[in-house]
Specification:
Blueprint: H1 3-14, H2 20-29, E1 52-56, E2 59-62, E3 67-70, H3 85-94, H4 106-118, E4 124-128, H5 131-146, E5 150-154, E6 192-195, H6 200-207, E7 212-217, H7 233-244, E8 247-251, H8 263-268, E9 274-277, E10 288-292, H9 294-297, H10 314-327, H11 330-354, E11 358-363, E12 366-371, H12 380-383, H13 388-400, E13 403-404, E14 410-412, H14 419-435
Parallel strand pairs: 3-13, 5-6, 5-7, 7-8, 8-9
Antiparallel strand pairs: 1-2, 2-3, 4-10, 9-10, 11-12, 12-14
Length: 436
């Protein structure tokens, strides 16, 4: 082991990793980048937003020379780790053949075929460049197909940052009606109805009014808390939407290809009419998709406009094909299931041993840690009871011990988080818990 590696491990064990160079660079870049970042979801990290030099496997290497075990994974996309040889080779092979054709490629067709073969609802699909764009396409299709305007979403569910859907993503407990998620957001709310998730009776009653174009939900509430649907909930929603002629949309931007080769809809056994995907679909390349019933998707050839200069970009399609080929192999998910479950159980055991109330909830590939809860949450109101300030302290302590986990409580796993990485993580978790 090199002298630097010995020092790195000592600082990791002592919890003395420093991030001052990242702090300095963020301050410097703020002269040109608003806040020093290009996404609000990278602002306000404790102790500072980080600047990275490189990544490898399950690790990030930052501007201060720290090696960090990474559970951000780019906010979810890096399911095969940061440097998968097959994905990199596929993208590199396409580079000398051209970047952007303004037309189609064989790679785009192959990627689309893989999506349609893997995802239960996908009879047809279209590629996009971001999850937010895919959601907009899905919403437009629901209204075109039904001739209705109202869309139901759920408190605590996130479907992108556009004005028409950024409602009640983190509302206060006493909220009545949709709550805007941003300053400057257009205030027209007549077409948005916000309901509590996992409340089937509320959904059934509202859909029965027969004016709802679409119901959009995270089929597993991953952006906020990795909350699973209650038994029978998704089945009941499916039945109510079918009866009312309402289009059911699953936002699988987080869960798609991550919790199973066919996404949450395959794992949970409920098929929506439309679904949106991004993140894990191309392991870090800017690719998203909307997929669903052919009669709905074919509306895009009948007056429903969907565009995007970079949709189906050839290099990104090469990465998509390579990623999906890996993810359709059952062995890929089997390994993550085993190691992720051990990590979840180890974190829960560490909190239990310390006498700190906490709930670890979700799937082995994407789970959530909620300090302050004693029972598994069912919806956004339950999550409001977690001790968010204490969790931020925990995440900050973890970072000083060489583990980077999202401050909102989500943990993403990759194929590169092997047994040694899990062992090191659990050691850091115990040390961090002792400090809070």
């Amino acid at each position: 082991m090199s002298e630097a590696s010995v020092a790195d491990r000592r600082n990791w064990q002592d919890g003395t990793l420093s991030f001052e160079e990242s702090r300095r660079r963020i301050a410097e870049s703020s002269q040109w980048l608003a806040g020093g970042v290009s996404s609000n979801f990278r602002l306000g990290m404790s102790p500072t937003p980080l600047v990275f030099e490189r990544a490898e496997g399950a690790f990030l290497f930052d501007a201060d020379g720290n090696r960090l075990i990474d559970y951000y994974l780019g906010m979810g996309p890096m399911i095969l780790g940061h440097t998968p040889a097959d994905v990199i080779a596929a993208a590199a092979a396409q580079l000398p053949k051209g970047l952007l054709y303004g037309g189609q490629s064989a790679l785009e067709t192959e990627a689309a075929r893989l999506v349609c073969e893997m995802v239960p609802c996908a009879e047809r699909m279209r590629f996009c460049s971001s999850g937010s764009e895919a959601v907009q396409a899905a919403l437009r299709l629901t209204r075109a197909a039904t001739g209705r305007r109202v869309v139901i979403k759920f408190a605590g569910h996130y479907h992108g940052w556009f004005d028409n859907i950024l409602w009640s993503t983190a509302p206060p407990a006493d909220a009545s009606g949709p709550v805007a998620g941003s300053r400057g957001q257009a205030e027209e709310t007549r077409e948005i109805v916000v309901l509590p998730w996992n409340d089937l009776a509320a959904l059934q009653a509202r859909v029965a009014q027969n004016d709802v174009a679409g119901v959009i939900m995270e089929s597993v509430m991953c952006n906020s808390g990795a909350i699973l649907p209650l038994p029978g909930y998704l089945e009941g929603v499916r039945e109510a939407c079918t009866k009312a002629g309402t289009v059911l949309v699953f936002d699988e931007v987080v869960t798609g290809f991550r919790v199973a080769p066919g996404g949450a809809q395959a794992r949970l056994g409920v098929t929506p009419d439309l679904a949106t995907f991004a993140k894990a679909i191309a392991n870090g390349f800017p690719v998203a998709a909307v997929a669903g019933r052919k009669d709905l998707m074919d509306l895009m050839t009948q007056g429903v406009v969907h565009g995007g200069t970079y949709n189906g970009q050839a290099v990104a399609m090469a990465a998509t094909v390579a990623t999906l080929k890996r993810l359709r192999d059952p062995a890929t998910h089997a390994g993550m299931e085993i190691r992720g479950l051990r990590l979840m159980q180890g974190i829960q055991a560490a909190f239990d041993a310390a006498g700190i109330a906490a709930v670890v909830n979700g799937f082995p590939q994407i789970f959530h840690v909620a300090i302050g809860l004693t029972e598994k949450p069912r919806n956004w109101d339950d999550l409001l009871k977690m001790d968010r300030a204490r969790y931020v302290k925990f995440a900050t302590a973890l970072l000083r011990h060489g583990v980077r986990a999202l401050e909102r409580g989500a943990w993403f796993l990759s194929t590169e988080h092997n047994d040694d990485v899990i062992n090191a993580t659990l050691e850091a978790v115990q040390r961090a818990i002792s400090e809070i």
